[in-house]
Design brief:
Layout lengths: L4 E14 L2 E14 L3 E5 L6 H8 L7 E6 L2 E2 L5 H11 E5 L10 H11 L4 H14 L15 H13 L5 E5 L7 H18 L2 E6 L2 H4 L4 E6 L2 E7 L4
Helix pairs in contact: 3-4, 3-5, 4-5, 5-6
Length: 233
């Protein structure tokens, strides 16, 4: 693990109202993530892994306790500040790809850069660099319906990585892929982690993903059950 601290989670709880009662999705979470980690939140459905990932991505806030991500206390951000953090510092990879079907591969990957008002020539270079990372420079004019599932997920990775974010959050990124495509995707992310020093945090219960992780954080009933650091692959 690198020394630089990127995320600090202290006494975090997340509660959801259920009728007159409440459901505690996360309880007493205390974790620290360093720069350059390739880590996973592991657990069955309902264990709290996606809830915690959403908080780290400023898509949700703690009910109590604190999550500090890249120096920002998530619970203290207003909607505009949270959107700015996501836009400038974070990348997201979802199992459903979330690509824009009517736009080309190039346009899908370019979209985060448009939000950052990056000049056209620089955008073009950054998009092509990102597509080269994932081996899709020959598909720039294709649209998502013309691609395989593995290719769509590689476009999603390129879109997440194009601005070289400090942190990438991946929620079950291989859930819709076969074994061969899953390993290709994971090797791509592993290479980007190593070469660009981007921190990756996954939410998963997929054994294929788990086999690549260098840190495994097991969640059970909303608590950290075990936290293992694995020797480098």
């Amino acid at each position: 693990m690198e020394i630089n601290t990127m995320i600090t989670i202290r006494n975090l709880e997340k509660r959801f109202p259920v009728g007159k009662d409440e459901f505690i999705a996360l309880r007493d979470i205390n974790l620290v993530f360093g720069a350059g980690e390739f880590a996973g939140l592991i657990g069955p459905s309902g264990s709290g892994k996606t809830t915690l990932l959403n908080i780290l991505g400023s898509l949700d806030v703690p009910s109590s306790g604190e999550a500090v991500v890249l120096g920002y206390s998530i619970g203290n951000l207003n909607a505009k500040q949270a959107a700015k953090l996501r836009k400038e510092k974070l990348g997201f990879i979802f199992q459903s790809y979330n690509l824009l079907a009517v736009h080309t591969v190039f346009e899908n990957v370019e979209f985060p850069l448009l939000l950052l008002n990056i000049p056209k020539d620089e955008r073009n270079r950054m998009v092509m660099d990102a597509l080269e990372w994932v081996g899709l420079t020959g598909k720039v004019r294709s649209k998502p319906p013309q691609l395989s599932g593995g290719e769509c997920q590689r476009v999603a990775i390129a879109r997440a990585m194009v601005k070289k974010p400090s942190l990438v959050l991946a929620d079950e990124p291989t859930a819709n892929l076969d074994a061969a495509n899953s390993h290709h995707i994971l090797k791509t992310m592993e290479t980007l982690n190593r070469e660009l020093k981007t921190t990756f945090i996954f939410a998963t219960h997929d054994d294929k993903v788990i086999s690549y992780l260098r840190r495994k954080i097991f969640l059970l009933d909303g608590r950290v059950d075990k936290d293992e650091v694995i020797s480098a692959r």
